[in-house]
């Protein structure tokens, strides 16, 4: 891994983590396109590549924490007060509970799929097919949302559970986490901004957990000393900066415009991957 590759992947992660186009798919495509053009065989990722992917996600976690810092603080404070008083009527406390429940559901669904998801990293053509499916989900969610006369600004238990399930399924590369969670929110009757905000807040515990647990159980400290830390750190910083800007402008975009443009992109990009990586 060199500096140019790390910057490129930082940009890709920062954009694709929050846009509904699957960050995992784009990291797979970017890495494998690079290997193909360099004449490198598509084989199992090295520990350094896996660790770098984790750090890129940590960069986008920093972005979402900074952007939603006020929301995170208010939710945490309301949840603490509610636990002490055993009164969860406050809407911020309820949102905190929904995030906890959605996270638990995500973990229960994602863990059994994790090994299969890791295996797909070495099959970019299949990932392209899953990305096409994400495009279809985005189209369908827009169609269903337009048919609804009223859209909710607040979540209920059913919506929180459904979005948690969607986030669990999106462990598969090609199934966009933000795309599937926002689309599910729209299916369930949420308005566009509420669905996007809950999607981003729900990502915090999952990315944080993966960023902390994975390196502890799979990264050899002695081996980590040999990593290209300059590239890793710069890529992480780029991911955080691009991710923050992406959230900022996407929240403005989704309140006014359709997700169909991302649906078209997913279908086209998926078809390109299918053709390019077909064997």
Question: What number of domains?
Answer: 1
Q: Give the percentage of residues in beta strands.
A: under 5%
Low-confidence stretches: none
Mean pLDDT: 89
Number of strands: 0
Structure, described:
The chain has 279 residues and is mainly α. It has one domain. It is 79% helix and 0% strand. The protein contains 12 helices and no strands. It has helices at residues 3-16, 23-38, 47-67, 69-85, 91-120, 124-147, 157-169, 177-187, 192-218, 221-224, 229-254, 260-277. The protein is globular. The mean pLDDT is 89.
Tell me the layout of helices and strands:
Elements lengths: L2 H14 L6 H16 L8 H21 L1 H17 L5 H30 L3 H24 L9 H13 L7 H11 L4 H27 L2 H4 L4 H26 L5 H18 L2
Helix pairs in contact: 1-2, 1-3, 1-11, 2-6, 3-9, 3-11, 4-5, 5-7, 5-9, 6-8, 6-12, 7-8, 8-9
Characteristics:
single chain; 279 residues; mainly alpha; 12 helices; globular
Compact summary:
Helices cover 79% and strands 0% of the residues. It is an all-alpha fold and 279 residues long.
């Amino acid at each position: 891994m060199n500096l140019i590759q790390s910057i490129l992947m930082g940009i890709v992660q920062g954009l694709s983590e929050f846009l509904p186009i699957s960050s995992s798919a784009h990291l797979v495509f970017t890495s494998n396109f690079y290997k193909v053009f360099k004449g490198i065989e598509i084989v199992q990722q090295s520990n350094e590549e896996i660790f770098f992917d984790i750090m890129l996600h940590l960069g986008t976690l920093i972005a979402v924490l900074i952007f939603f810092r006020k929301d995170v603080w208010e939710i945490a404070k309301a949840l603490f007060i509610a636990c002490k008083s055993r009164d969860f009527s406050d809407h911020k406390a309820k949102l905190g509970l929904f995030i906890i429940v959605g996270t638990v559901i995500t973990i229960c669904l994602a863990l059994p799929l994790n090994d299969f998801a890791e295996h797909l990293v070495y099959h970019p053509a299949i990932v392209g097919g899953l990305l096409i499916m994400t495009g279809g989900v985005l189209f369908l969610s827009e169609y269903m949302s337009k048919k609804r006369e009223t859209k909710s600004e607040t979540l209920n238990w059913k919506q929180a559970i459904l979005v948690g399930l969607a986030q669990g399924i999106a462990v598969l590369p090609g199934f966009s986490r933000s795309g599937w969670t926002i689309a599910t929110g729209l299916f369930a009757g949420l308005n566009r901004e509420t669905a996007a905000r809950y999607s981003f807040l729900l990502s915090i515990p999952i990315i944080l957990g993966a960023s902390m647990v994975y390196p502890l159980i799979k990264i050899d400290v002695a081996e980590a000393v040999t990593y290209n830390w300059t590239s890793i750190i710069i890529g992480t910083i780029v991911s955080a900066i691009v991710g923050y800007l992406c959230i900022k402008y996407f929240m403005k975009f989704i309140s006014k415009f359709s997700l169909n443009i991302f649906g078209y992109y997913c279908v086209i990009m998926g078809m390109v991957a299918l053709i390019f990586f077909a064997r």
